[in-house]
Write the structure tokens for this entry.
Amino acid sequence: MLSKYLIVFFISMVPLVELRGAIPVSQGFDLPIIRSYIICIVGNMLPVPVIYLFARKFLEWGQDKKFIGGICSFFLVKGQKAGEKLEAKAGKGLFVALFLFVGIPLPGTGAWTGTLAASLLDMKFRDTVIAVMAGVLFAGLIMMALSMGVFSFAG
């Protein structure tokens, strides 16, 4: 059982998958939903300070390097576009926009992209972590409800 929790924990740390993928996997493993939710939140939030503090610097450094330039450029462009989109929609409501960007579980959104976007926009670290945490908690609740079949889309 511990190995299943570790798998779920590490899946929640993976960019673009995050807890949006980890919570359904936990339910495929028949793990208790609340415990899985907590483990996924921790796993999803663990990279956030590292992303905020170092990802921008690494990506800017690596964008002109031979082997990693393409992927670094891809993530810089993705983060910049996400940041511009957030800023255009939010204006002074950037905190709420970041919360919603992270909290609504759609492809390409999440803690990784949201944190990178906030970093590229020079949003304060504390505000970024709080908005991303709130968004991750909200996205986790949505995924938990969907995984448990609370929302039935079958006619």
Observations:
- The chain has a mean pLDDT of 90.
